[in-house]
Amino acid sequence: MSRQVELGPDHGALTIRTGVTGKAARTGHRLVIGFDRWAAAISYTDDAPSAVRVAVDVESLQVLSGEGGLTPMTAPERGVARLNALKSLKASKFGEITFTADDVTAADGGYRLVGTLTICGMSRPHTVEVTSDGATVSGESPVRQTDFGVKPYSLMMGALKVADEVVVAVEATISR
């Protein structure tokens, strides 16, 4: 028996956590970025997940918070950071980020999803480990921006820049 479960922002959160690097790193904010529009489809065969597809609308990117830095991040600074992120992700040209996994295997307390991640039109093999108790799913996966042609944002001639590796996280409730 096969079935499909749909998830989106009403079921949980899909976020990106960034770091900062460079000589002036202590002056920069580590961001938490969320998306208002994303959809995940989990296909099940005999009550076990067999495929996963996630699509994220890049334009729905929001800067949720910024930690660190010399001063707390203000709303106008979050707006500027959002515009910089959209520019780095070439959102006007590549409006969607996708992850498709057709190889789903049971792992300790969850599943290993082996598939393809596409960012800025570049596709690369990617593996995501998630935990799941059947009612919830959560996981984190590091992604190196430069692997997908994304130039991490920088300023002050590179003295402050977004770290190349970001962490993508998902936490959602699965409705049956």
Automatic annotation (TrEMBL):
<dbReference type="InterPro" id="IPR036761">
    <property type="entry name" value="TTHA0802/YceI-like_sf"/>
</dbReference>
<keyword id="KW-0489">Methyltransferase</keyword>
<dbReference type="InterPro" id="IPR007372">
    <property type="entry name" value="Lipid/polyisoprenoid-bd_YceI"/>
</dbReference>
<dbReference type="GO" id="GO:0032259">
    <property type="term" value="P:methylation"/>
</dbReference>
<feature type="domain" description="Lipid/polyisoprenoid-binding YceI-like">
    <location>
        <begin position="6"/>
        <end position="175"/>
    </location>
</feature>
<comment type="similarity">
    <text>Belongs to the UPF0312 family.</text>
</comment>
<protein>
    <submittedName>
        <fullName>S-adenosyl-L-methionine-dependent methyltransferase</fullName>
    </submittedName>
</protein>
<keyword id="KW-0808">Transferase</keyword>
<dbReference type="GO" id="GO:0008168">
    <property type="term" value="F:methyltransferase activity"/>
</dbReference>
<dbReference type="Pfam" id="PF04264">
    <property type="entry name" value="YceI"/>
</dbReference>
